[in-house]
Amino acid sequence: MGMHHGGGQAGSALCPQPRQTVQAPDEFYNLVNPLGNTADNIEKGRLLFSLDVQPTCVMCHGAQGDGTGGFGADMSPKPRNFTCAETMSPIPDGQLFWVIRNGSPDTGMPPFQDLRDEQIWQLILYIRSLGGQ
Ligand code: HEC
Predict the structure, then answer these.
(1) What is the pLDDT confidence band of residue 11, given thresholds at 50, 70 and 90?
(2) Could you give the CA distance from residue 81 to residue 5 in angstroms, rounded to a whole number?
(3) What angle do CA 81, 84, 85 make, to 5 degrees?
(4) Ligand 1 surroundings by CB, under 6 angstroms
(5) Does the predicted TM-score (pTM) go above 0.70?
(6) At what angle do helices 39-47 and 117-127 cross, to 10 degrees?
(7) Which atom of ligand 1 sits closest to the CA of residue 105?
(8) Which of 29, 79, 96, 112 could be 72's S-S partner, Cβ–Cβ 3.0 to 4.6 Å?
(9) Please, what are the domains in the chain?
(10) pLDDT mean across residues, the chain
(11) For a pocket test of ligand 1, which of 20, 51, 61 has the largest count of ligand atoms closer than 8 A to its C-beta?
(12) How far apart are CA 64 and CA 83, in angstroms?
């Protein structure tokens, strides 16, 4: 696939991506996205991801969501590559929900406590639309 490994160059997306993220508590982990997988919800998620939420997800996860945003370049672990199915598809919706709301402990992924549930689910539909489902 021509993926680059190591080197830490900006613009190199890892797939599969090493993942040691803390698992969400059961009451989150088992949640299922209640929203329909519609073009409208995905577009709302895209706007939240790229524009409306501060700091933007794009800063770290990149404009394509492949984990290569400039602000995340020196982070360890690296921002998640949402385009990587091998890493993303085993992760349940409820896990993604918990990390977006509460952050990922001891990593660069910050909590977004002000987002409404509906907005987080829209973000998740957008993230899943990037090819990593
Ligand atoms: C300041 C940098 C930064 C910003 C801003 C950021 N993230 Fe992250 N994100 C990270 C890092 C670093 C990780 C990897 C954490 C890990 O490996 O546990 C991550 C991981 C994730 C994960 C993976 C959860 C898992 O269990 O694997 C999701 C989902 C996520 N981010 C969503 C978002 C969304 C949505 C936004 C915007 C609302 C956002 N992030 C903004 C840095 C960031």
Answers:
(1) low
(2) 13
(3) 140
(4) 19, 21, 53, 55, 57, 59-61, 71-72, 75, 77, 79-80, 91, 95-96, 99-100, 104, 107-110, 112, 123
(5) yes
(6) 100
(7) 18
(8) 79
(9) 26-132 (1.10.760.10)
(10) 92
(11) 61
(12) 8
